[in-house]
Each structure stands twice: as structure tokens, then as C-alpha cells.
Design brief:
Largest sheet: none
Number of helices: 4
Distance between the termini: 31 Å
Low-confidence stretches: none
Structural class: mainly alpha
Radius of gyration: 19 Å
Number of domains: 1
Helix content: over 70%
Strand content: under 5%
Number of strands: 0
Mean pLDDT: 93
Length: about 160
């Protein structure tokens, strides 16, 4: 597919994903944790910590989506190999690290209080996924920096 067809399609999916994540952040998770607190008094104390963990993690993901939107604009304008693009990739790195740290705190909170290993194991798998994404983004950032330097050198030669 040519780039001009893929970028607008990706933007549609980014908007849809942002909307779903926003609904999860503002309604679904807070409602689920409120219900959990009403149904099980022993777990009621987890309502607000889990709400904050879910909200913070999803906020990091929303920042990644916005930065991806900005990077797509740079791709369309053929400005991806610039220092501005590196700044947006740094935003992705920081947001992923921040969201991952919040999620790790939630993992420790839930894992410490769990009676069944299923939920902590699932959360651990998600945490591993976040770490892998963070490491991949760091590798891609390094490649983007090298390509940016090469393009700058090429422009000086030309």
C-alpha cells in the first residue's frame, strides 16, 4: 500500500483507539472498581489505588497515541528524519516508561494481595509486554537518530 493510503487509515484507527482508551479510563475501570468495592468489602480499599493505576497507565498510552499522530504528520511531510521527530520519540519513551512504572506499582499491589495466581500472572505478562515495547522503542529511537545524522551529512554533501 502506498504511504498516502496507509497514514490516513492509521489515523482513523488511532482516533478510534484513543476513544476506546478514554472510555476505559473515565468510565469502565472506575465503574468496575466501584462495583468491586460494593460487592466485596475486603477489597474496597483497592478501589482508589486501582483506579489511579488504571488511569495513570492509560494516560501514558494516550500520550503515546498523540505522539504517534504527530510522527505520522512528519512522515506525510517527509520530515521524519529531523530533531523534532526525535523529540516526539522521546515523548513516547517517557510516556511508556511512566505508564509502565504506574502499571508495575499496580502489579505489585495486586500481586501482594492476591489469593489466586491467575490475575498476577496475567498482569505480569502485560508488564513484560510494556517492557518489550519500551525496549523496541529505544532501539528504534537509536536507528532514527543514526538515520537523522546520515541524512544531515548527506544534505551537507549535496
Amino acid at each position: 500500500m502506498p504511504r498516502l493510503r496507509v497514514v490516513p487509515l492509521l489515523r482513523v484507527f488511532l482516533v478510534a483507539l484513543f476513544g476506546v482508551v478514554l472510555v476505559l479510563q473515565l468510565f469502565s475501570f472506575p465503574g468496575q472498581f466501584a462495583y468491586m468495592a460494593r460487592v466485596d468489602a475486603e477489597l474496597a480499599w483497592l478501589r482508589w489505588p486501582l483506579t489511579l493505576v488504571a488511569g495513570g497507565t492509560l494516560l501514558g498510552f494516550e500520550v503515546v497515541l498523540v505522539a504517534t499522530w504527530k510522527l505520522l504528520g512528519m512522515v506525510e511531510r517527509d520530515r521524519i528524519f529531523t530533531p523534532d521527530a526525535l523529540r516526539w520519540v522521546d515523548v513516547v519513551v517517557r510516556a511508556t516508561a511512566g505508564g509502565g512504572a504506574v502499571f508495575a506499582a499496580g502489579f505489585l499491589l495486586v500481586g501482594h494481595n492476591a489469593t489466586d495466581p491467575g490475575v498476577p500472572l496475567l498482569l505480569f505478562v502485560v508488564l513484560l509486554g510494556i517492557v518489550v515495547v519500551e525496549l523496541v522503542v529505544l532501539v528504534l529511537r537509536s536507528l532514527l537518530r543514526q538515520a537523522t545524522e546520515l541524512r544531515a551529512d548527506l544534505e551537507q554533501v549535496i
